[in-house]
Amino acid sequence: GRTMKKSIRLFVALAAILSFASCKKEIQAPVAEDEPSYSLTFVAGAPGTKTTATVDGDKVNYSWTKYDVDKFSVYEIVEGKDPVKASLTVGELTDGVMSITATFDEPLTSGASYQAFFNEYVKAEQKSIGSDYDQDSDVLESEVVKASEEQLNETGIALRFRRLSAICEMKLKDLAKGEYVHSVVVESLDAKALAQTVADGGKENSTSIKISCLNEIAADGTATVRFVSLPVEAANLKVTVETTDDGETVAATYEKAFAKPITFKQGDLTAFGVTGLTEKAPAEGFVLVSANQTDWSGLYLLVGKNNNDYYAFDESAYVDNTWGSSSKVMVEND
User: Fold this and answer.
1) Average pLDDT for 254-275
2) Would you say 303 and 290 are in contact if contact means Cβ atoms under 8 Å apart?
């Protein structure tokens, strides 16, 4: 009867009190002040700052692309300590605006500053496809910024980038042989740094840049190749060009040493022509005149000419413009 109902009500009330006390205890449980890691978001608006370029005369218009999202790195800068690189950096492109989220595997340091990079060095070996230049070699750095409490939690930290590298466009002329430019080597004869290589975790300067490409040679013997360089003042340059008909076999090698020094300015597009290219004969005076699959032996042979004599070479014997063992053959004139 009444006694049973009263007992049930007391039991329910007691359970409610205990439950409330438990919840209150959970809410008031202390939270560690130092988190083991933290993340920040940075926002880079539509540039003047980016690699992918549309060239309009001498003007270069830059924009972010979806291929840029994995090319960023971010560093935490604290006075008296070495900069710390974020363990993970992820970009996201939305309506032309690039958001960059960086995660650091350490507690947030009060008063820290931050700097972001788009790529970190100009490569000594680059690729050029058509009118484009190597997107992995263009180097941009942001200004050093601090984060307000609001930016840490919500809006993101605004970044402005500047270009550290120089964009170069060369128009090659007098290319009499070959359908395509296969590679170009730009070399500083006075040992000035044009690019960098990475070895043992550090960067080393390189005095040359090799650009691999397959850029079409026009009917007038001209072709355009773009590349990225470190800024350089008054460098004495030499250009070596290899052409091809099939994308594999070298049709001809051309060289040109500039009579006047040239300057590549930081952040700017430098356009220049390369005229007076001279065809370079391979070692021992041989000139490559044809490449054919033979009916005998099945070997792929290169045919070279020295004076009026013709020689056949195994394909492997012609490496870096150097001829190996050969045998004299008869070649019928056309």
Assistant:
1) 92
2) yes
